[in-house]
Amino acid sequence: HNIAQHTGDAIRILSNFKPLSLALSLAERTGSLGCVGWFIVSLSAIFTICLFPFTIWFCLKIVQEYERAVIFRLGRITDRKAKGPGIFFVLPCTDSFVKVDLRTVSFDIPPQEILTKDSVTVCVDGVVYFRVSDPIASVANVSNADFSTRLLAQTTLRNVLGTKNLAELLSDREGIAHGMQSSLDEATDDWGIKVERVEIKDVKLPVQLQRAMAAEAEAAREARAKVIAAEGEMNASRALKEASLVIAESPSALQLRYLQTLNTIAAEKNSTIIFPLPMDVISHFMKK
């Protein structure tokens, strides 16, 4: 216990020296490099300082506003946060870095032959929008985040559409796209990828199925037209019945209707004019 206490006091005293404190802070950033790693880093630092006018061009790196740099020092990631944007420093011979683009990327899902739940083969394609949300995870957790996301989008499209009927596929594209986005976003979370949007572009049906659906739609339209025509005739007959009852209550109304019809015929400049006889004139003959 006394040895540990004295050792801790010695470490605290030595840590007050600036060179040693700088080395300790560097060790915290770079992780446990070991004796050999420290030796290589020290040689690289000495080499950089001795040849400073020339090595400055190898130490200064620049990344754009939409980029981040993940730095590896002897195979280890130096910081938990990616560098950039702007200027950052690297040690030659020991440090390497990978640039990661943070802009939103879109790609087309190739047309996929999919068998729906009701055993109909359709060809579906779509488009996916995604971006890198965690640069370190996109570099350290997956070898090629872009290519892996593309392959996963194709398999997810097949899996999601395989559980839908043809009617749901044609009418509920927005819901299918939302379900695909949730599945992709959950699967790519460990890769540092954020799926922002998924859209179903086109659904191609077989030619025979298109003809059958067109015939069915045409038959449905004809049936609806017949029903509407029958309803119109029924309403017209009811209106005529009510009009006849009104005219029967007032015989003079029928004469006025005759005169109105004569006025309409004369306005059209016809060569033949029909003069209707009043009903009271022929009523005497009808009784006999």
Automatic annotation (TrEMBL):
It comes from the Eukaryota. The keyword Transmembrane applies. Residues 58-217 form the Band domain. It is found in: Membrane. InterPro entries: Band-7_stomatin-like (IPR043202), Band_7 (IPR001107), Band_7/SPFH_dom_sf (IPR036013), Band_7/stomatin-like_CS (IPR018080), Stomatin_HflK_fam (IPR001972). PROSITE patterns: BAND_7 (PS01270). Keywords: Membrane, Transmembrane, Transmembrane helix. It holds the Pfam family Band_7. One of its GO terms (cellular component) is plasma membrane. The chain crosses the membrane at residues 36-60. Belongs to the band 7/mec-2 family. This is Stomatin (EPB72)-like 3b. It comes from Seriola lalandi dorsalis.
